[in-house]
Amino acid sequence: MPKKLPKFAPLTLDFTFKKAFANEQCTELLLFLLNTFLAEKLKSPIKEVSIINNEQLGKTRANRNAIFDVNCKDATGARFIVEVQVDKQKHFISRTFYYLCMAISNLAKKCKNFDFNIPKLYSISFMDFEIDFGTGCTEIVQHLSLRNDKHPEVSYDMFQMTFVILPRFNKTESECKTAMDKILFAFKNGHKLRKAPKSFKERELKDIFNIAEISNFTESELYKYEAIMRNEYDQRACLAYAKEEGIGEGILQTAKNMLAKGFSVADVLKATNLPREQIRVLKRA
């Protein structure tokens, strides 16, 4: 019997994530996401947001740029950065902090009397891999902020990092009672379902599944989605081949195969962790 085609695109794909939450014409789903995962950190719910340029420029040519999945601000000027990350990174917390520092630097007003009164900055990272936050830190949602070492009850709200570790969420559909549970279920299992859960009554949840439904894609969206999934399958095949052949020659061959298929140096770097210069040498070979 032929395998059934998926009904919903994975929400952990940049393509689907941005389609749902980076819509400049309708920010209701983005508000739903922000208010759900930042509820305990906000003095009051966010009423409105506007999406702004998602690229943060490095200060010199030697500095890399940062491109966020979603970059937005509310009426008070507070900034919110939202990302989804599928590929595991060893220093992901440091990476997130580095990108926040870039955003803070770009918020600095270029004037003589600038007093460093920058807007509050929040980040939410949805991670499809496990990461160690320390002994006993087993919660699905981890909040990191600036605190006083001798008085940890005293915190400073100039920035807040929130990490959502999707592999830690294991509830079934019937066990999902809160909006956060249901969003996490959609991220973790939505692409495996044949229909949207009937118990998810919230309009925003219904909209998320409607946006992720592949049959609702336009022709150009479907073409882009299929291209992304082909690349995903090729990368998985290359990595599987590398494991079979051994870490040395296997990784080199993976890099060669990916370059031959048209993957960028950045994609090969992400998949193999080979030095950038070595990948460039392989590309020229």
Q: How much helix, percentage-wise, in residues?
A: 25-40%
Please indicate the count of domains. Answer: 2
Beta-strand share of residues = 15-25%
- What is the number of strand segments? 8
Q: How do the SSEs run, as a string of H and E? A: HHEEEEEHEEEHHHHHH
- N-to-C CA distance: 43 Å
Name the structural class.
alpha/beta
* Alpha plus pi helix count: 9
Calculate Rg over CA atoms. Answer: 21 Å
Main sheet summary: 6 strands, mixed
The chain-level mean pLDDT equals 85
What spatial order of strands do you see in the largest sheet?
1-4-5-6-8-7
Question: What do you see in this structure?
Answer:
The chain is an alpha/beta fold and about 280 residues long. It is about 40% helix and about 15% strand. The chain has nine helices and eight strands. The strands form two sheets. The protein has a six-stranded mixed beta sheet, with helices on both faces. A two-stranded antiparallel ribbon has the order 2-3. A hairpin with a 7-residue loop joins strand 7 (about 140-145) and strand 8 (about 155-165). The protein starts with 13 loop residues before the first helix and ends with a helix. Mean pLDDT is about 85; it is low at about 60-65.
